[in-house]
Specification:
The protein is of the alpha+beta class. The protein has 13 helices and 17 strands. Helix 1 crosses helix 10 and helix 6 crosses helix 7.
């Protein structure tokens, strides 16, 4: 078959998105603004993106037939979730330009491959071991000094599919057995728990023409392994900021991704930058780019998908977001009006049908004169939203 060209997709063209969650929804909204038609594929017909797109194809992530229906007649295909079956991705790539590409997703969607790829290509990562058996895990806990995060290779996110193992496991082998059982006895990565100063992320973008841009680093705070809030800028020194952005640019170049790549990083107390995980799509920690940057991450994804020049990633104003999980709806009646009384705050809801514990239902965003003010505003809005009368 003749290789598909990297021609520009002009407004009026059809963009197809693998995944119809909140990331697909917000990408579709950006595409709409730029004049594109949008089709998505998702296991649920009434997914968050379904309310703002032209068509929803129903199919699971490894449904080859559904993926082919999605790509048929599309001018370009992108994704908002990396857990798409490789066979489905390969079939899509035969029908339309697939950005970011098959091979980068194959590597990134399996944490065992991802971590190995990073290490083999010389990118800084903390000590880790690939785990294929309970025996492997026993050896790893000992080698990694008894402080370990065990992460399932495929399918885990937002704290799911991972478990923390502490020093007590050196004396109690049952803890290790239970941890191995909790990840389904499936191939995993055991990572040494690090002494950290902060967690940051850097979003990089690369279009088919090879142009690369990075966003300023975001500072992130997690609770129960789920992002609670994020703020731009991260407040790093000039040197650390430059090193973090270069790492993200180097990784997206090495993977030859056509699209977005969010690089999650740790900053240790020794001042080292270590790569945590990669996400080849829009990322929760850059939702505030809609408020704070010249070009949002969602518009940037549309640009990379359509082979357009990349947008300016400069920060216009400090901005922050706080996630709204299903817990909010299950424990109180959200007072949105009260939250919106806080200056600079906006409400973003994803139209998900049912609230569940830990499920991302929306977020609040805020701007401010400083990063601290933006963060204070959005946290105050969250507090007001959850106060009972």
């Amino acid at each position: 078959m003749t290789p598909l060209t990297s021609s520009v997709v002009r407004p009026g063209g059809l963009i197809a998105i693998l995944g119809g969650g909140q990331l697909g929804r917000m990408t579709a909204m950006a595409a709409r603004t730029m004049g594109y038609r949008v089709r998505v594929m998702d296991p649920e017909f009434r997914c968050p993106a379904s309310f703002v797109v032209d068509e929803t194809v129903v199919g699971t992530w490894d449904d080859v037939a559904a993926a082919k229906r999605l790509a048929s007649g599309a001018d370009a295909v992108t994704l908002e979730i990396e857990q798409i079956g490789v066979e489905a991705l390969s079939e899509v790539a035969q029908l339309a330009p697939l950005r970011p590409g098959v091979e980068p997703i194959r590597i990134i969607q399996d944490k065992t491959l991802q971590k190995t790829w990073l290490a083999e290509n010389g990118f800084p990562v903390g000590p880790f071991r690939i785990i294929s058996s309970e025996e492997d895990l026993h050896h790893a806990v000992k080698a990694l000094a008894g402080r370990v995060f065990l992460k399932i290779g495929r399918g885990g996110y937002d704290g799911r599919g991972q478990v923390r193992i502490g020093m007590e496991a050196l004396l109690n082998k049952q803890i290790i057995t239970d941890a191995w059982t909790s990840v389904g006895k499936k191939p995993s990565v055991a990572e040494q728990a690090m002494d950290l100063v902060s967690e940051i992320s850097v979003m990089a973008a690369r279009n088919p023409a090879g142009e690369v841009r990075t966003y300023p680093a975001a500072r992130n705070h997690h609770e129960n392994q789920i992002l609670a809030w994020s703020v731009l800028p991260a407040g790093l020194s000039t040197d650390v900021e430059a090193r973090a952005e270069k790492l993200a640019a180097d990784i997206i170049e090495k993977l030859r991704i056509e699209g977005l790549l969010c690089v999650e990083m740790f900053i240790t107390r020794q001042g080292r930058l270590l790569i945590n995980e990669l996400a080849p799509r829009p990322h929760n920690s850059y939702h505030q780019s809609e408020r704070g940057c010249v070009t949002s991450q969602f518009e940037q994804l549309v640009r990379t998908t359509c082979n357009l020049p990349l947008g300016d990633t400069s920060l216009i104003t400090p901005a922050a977001i706080v996630n709204l999980l299903g817990d909010v709806w299950l424990t109180s009646s959200p007072n949105f009006a009260k939250a919106l009384e806080v200056p600079g705050v906006r409400l973003h809801l994803y139209e998900k049908r049912a609230a569940k514990m830990g499920r991302k239902m929306g977020h609040l965003s805020a701007t401010g004169a400083t990063a601290e003010e933006a963060l204070e505003r959005v946290l105050e809005a969250k507090k007001q939203l959850t106060l009972t009368a």
